[in-house]
Amino acid sequence: MSLTTSLSPNCSGTDTVVATTPLVTFLVRVQETALRTFGEEDFDPKRYVDLSLKSNLSKTQKAFDGLPRSGENGTVSVEDLKVFIATYFDDAGDDLVYYDPEDFFPEPEGFLPKVKNPEVRSWALEVHALWKNLSRKVSDGVLEHSELHTMLPLPEAVVVPGSRFREVYYWDSYWVIRGLLASKMYETAKAIVTNLIFHVNTYGYVLNGGRAYYTNRSQPPLLSAMVYEIYNRTCDVELVRKALPALLEEHAFWNSEIHKVTIQDAQGSNHNLSRYYAMWNKPRPESSRRDKEYASKFLDNSEKQQFYREVASAAESGWDFSTRWMRNTSEFSSLSTTSILPVDLNVYILKMEQDIAFFANVLGHKSTMESFLEAAEARKIAINSVFWNDEMGQWLDYRLTNGPICKESETWQACNQNQNAYASNFIPLWVDLFHSDAALVEKVMGSFQSSGLVHSAGIATSLINSGHQWDFPNGWAPLQHMIVEGFLRSGLKEARSLAEDIAVRWIKTNYVGYKKTGAMHEKYDVQKCGEFGGGGFYKPQTGFGWSNGVVLTFLEEFGWPEDRSIGC
Q: What GO terms in the biological process aspect are recorded for it (predicted)?
């Protein structure tokens, strides 16, 4: 089988960059100075780009430029910098205020009816109560003087992931919403969707997160899935009416020239698939020094710029960072995200196409419904043509031989499929076009069970222990959820029992971790029940939006019998 790939015509737009604000540029200077002054220990670069100005930028810059400096690299003293920051800035996170959600009740009516074990029930109510801790509203100051903040204005309240992630995040919000629905907090769930629709109406796509330095990229596109789940519970036609134009715009964004890659197979049929592609070619403001350090391996400026784009595109994928995006799994500077057609991204877009068709039908827009059913069918064929590996029984990411550089076409080769085991290889099962095929589910189930990804405390992200957080031995709530839900919805008895087995392992590790540390964690170590995960470029975080959401979703689906133990 030979396939030919071509990037969009002339690849116009592939050097696209969305400009940042003067405030972000200035805060990066403050961040670099702070690192020199305070040193590496406990230094979180994100804190500095999250600061808000107390007065205008030019006055603050003037004061900063006037600070006494010593030595070759112009170091500011600890005392001077502390006084300067306290005088001219409000702290990171001050631009959000705590918000008391009106639809929160300590024990909602009909909450988790299948959870019979009193220990598990009382823990689930504690997890439910965390929604109150994580609810925020953008402060009036941001709405009145947006130029003093990197926080972006939003019309409604938000639920934040937690800890250093003190703003709304795109793909996290899907699992937050699933948890809110289990908690019967329908209005809070709708408010999150309203904010993300506001992003699309303002910027043309949903941003990675709610900060000025995130405007150059999106994140896994799950807005349609959020609307679908809320509609499923509430039958809110007005929400669908409000969402549909934004979803059409988002779909156009993910199929625009920078994202779309066309692949021609041996029969001359064209298949369109999408890739991650950030509109940015500089160090990320929230991680400026580290990006520069890795880029220092490149001598040529255009190579540095390409590397910065690959880093930002990996951040757009939500998997920041993973060997999945590296040509050489031991070399971070070999990131080549834009040269990879990812299985999961195309599954999310397929789901978006199905959801748009469903919403169009709800609203009586027959021609939109028909064209999106066709688009979904075409993408399903593309996913199977390019990603499916029959021998392995998995869908594998595909690497473009030409890289991100534009050429007319290239020939598909089996060796360009990434044969490493990643949890993303099984994400297609999440969508009914795949999990409704019983023979396929059985094949994939066998492949999954022998993949090496299934461990005592959940599904590993990969088999490669690279020190990056989206690799072994970390397990992440969203990946557990999509794979479990895919097996569950197939309706096969053995698949349901596998799904429940994984959900039970995941609930246990979350429970034991919570009892040990008093917190829910961002990620977990799938080898050790009750241990949170590590690796990556920042300290492990707690809170935690999507972990809370997945635990509540699993408990709602599977319950917990009175006689089942909850310990490891």
A: trehalose catabolic process
